[in-house]
Specification:
By secondary structure, this protein is of the alpha+beta class. The protein is 16% helix and 33% strand. Strands 2-3-4-5-6-7-8-11 form an eight-stranded antiparallel β-barrel. The longest helix has 10 residues. The N terminus is likely disordered.
Length: 220
């Protein structure tokens, strides 16, 4: 899987000069390790009541060429810690598995420690806003199969109906949802089965590796 260009930055509403604010801290690295960009949101994509748990998600998942790994370990409450490794890059996130109707999704958010370290070294940290990334979970047996909302489709849909979901467009053309969770969920649910709205990630899925993530030592 090839890496993509840096997908996050300041946002620029149509017809206006680009503001100084840089948008969605911590997810630029995430976008860089994924094949194609995914939409993001200033609010979580889930409500607490939407959260579910699936023990089969925990473990190490790898692409067929061994270049990409998603490593899930148990987190606090109903979350997982997720480390994504791709072609020499590494991103650490908090992952929440949730359901909309019968469909499952992952909400990824920069891990607090990793985000803090990144902001400490970034001279523009005062203008950075953490954001959430969304992935659809198509299955976990026998492989982890994921898909993301197609950016080309999303931009065309919002061009036809700008009021369908509150959003801004980033300088690279990506879309960031700015509406509250319930409104964004309604938009996602409406287009769950629309042709072209979702793009498969990792053509052959991610296979479970024999390796297992190391457990953190218990406090003495």
């Amino acid at each position: 899987m090839r890496t993509t260009k840096r997908c996050l930055g300041g946002f620029a509403p149509a017809g206006r000069r680009r503001p100084v604010v840089v948008f969605t801290a911590g997810l630029a690295a995430l976008a860089a390790v994924l094949a194609g960009c995914v939409p993001i949101s200033t609010y979580p994509f889930y409500r607490v009541g939407d959260l579910v748990q699936d023990a089969s998600l925990v473990g190490v998942w790898q692409s067929a060429d061994g270049q990409n790994s998603w490593i899930f370990t148990p987190g606090r409450d109903k979350s997982c810690n997720l480390e994504i490794q791709s072609e020499g890059q590494r991103v650490v996130c908090v992952a929440h598995l949730f359901k909309l109707g019968s469909e499952r999704f992952l909400d990824l958010y920069p891990a607090e420690q990793a985000l803090g370290d990144a902001l400490e070294k970034n001279p523009y940290s005062v203008g950075l806003i953490p954001g959430h990334a969304l992935f659809r979970v198509l299955g976990t047996t026998p492989k982890l199969r994921l898909s993301g909302m197609g950016m080309d489709w999303l931009k065309e849909e919002l061009k036809r109906n700008p009021n369908a979901a509150a959003h801004v467009e980033l300088p690279d053309g990506r879309v960031a949802f700015t509406g509250r969770t319930e409104a964004v969920q309604a938009f996602i649910t409406k287009h769950l089965h629309e042709t072209g709205a979702w793009n498969a990630m990792f053509e052959d899925g991610l296979a479970r590796s024999d390796a297992r993530p190391a457990e953190k030592p218990k406090a003495q």
